[in-house]
Amino acid sequence: MLPEERQSFIYSYLYQHAYVTFSALAQLLNVSHMTIRRDIQMLEKDGKVTIISGGAKLNEALKQELPWQEKAQLHHQTKRNIARVAETLVESGQVIYLDAGTTTYEIARSIGDQLKKVTIVTNDFTIGDYLMERQHITFFHTGGQVDRRNRSCIGNSAAAFIRGLNLDIAFISTSSWDIEHGLSTPDEGKALVKQAALASSRRNVLVSDSSKYGKYGMFHICPLQAFDDIIHDDLLPEELQEKIKQLAINLHVVKS
């Protein structure tokens, strides 16, 4: 395995588990501790991880999201459970925005399976490909600058399209959120799109598993109070749930 491949694996592993020891990585990758240490040092130099005693942890200041294919493999059942709850918020005849992401892809599938006649707007190409075969759903793609890594459109052009719409519900995905920083992203182009969707919708719903909580990116999108609902899994600590409820946000908890 090439150094770049090992480092990609390590970053993906930390994205899912938040912390790992050098010994565990050496075993997983069947390489020496010295090799692992060099790889971790490169990731730390890039600002992605922080070296701690005996191992490494994911940097809370998120520098880069995982590509779509890798994110799709993480917490798959949790995402499907979130999608089932999200679908129950949707009524026939509504105009729905589905943000780019693997959780929102599962929402598209849940809506499609229920044969609800809705209009869906998205900036996600994978969601768009799925909707191409669902004749009962009216479908708009935002267009705009293409982000190949995440199979979506970002930036001013995509945001401008969304700002011209009246949306009933916007389902927003994220790689990073918490009470202190609200919703954020390491990518300015994504921030513009999410902000446009939030401003154009009468009901805003954050969909995110708890592994994304406590991370933050450079670009602030909105405070948590911008959301009417948050759908998350049962691994988010109860004390945090209580603090979020105090912000007058409806929480929907699913099994992880």
TrEMBL record:
**Annotated transmembrane regions:** none
Pfam families the record matches: DeoRC, HTH_DeoR
Q: Any idea where the HTH deoR-type domain is?
A: 3-58
Q: Origin, by domain of life?
A: Bacteria
Q: Gene3D superfamilies annotated for this entry?
A: 3.40.50.1360, Winged helix-like DNA-binding domain superfamily/Winged helix DNA-binding domain
Entry keyword annotation includes Transcription: yes
Does the keyword Transcription regulation belong to this entry? yes
Q: Which SUPFAM superfamilies match?
A: NagB/RpiA/CoA transferase-like (SSF100950), Winged helix' DNA-binding domain (SSF46785)
Q: Which GO terms describe its molecular function?
A: DNA binding; DNA-binding transcription factor activity
Keywords from UniProt, A to Z, are: DNA-binding, Transcription, Transcription regulation
Q: What is this protein called?
A: Transcriptional regulator, DeoR family
Source organism: Sodalis praecaptivus
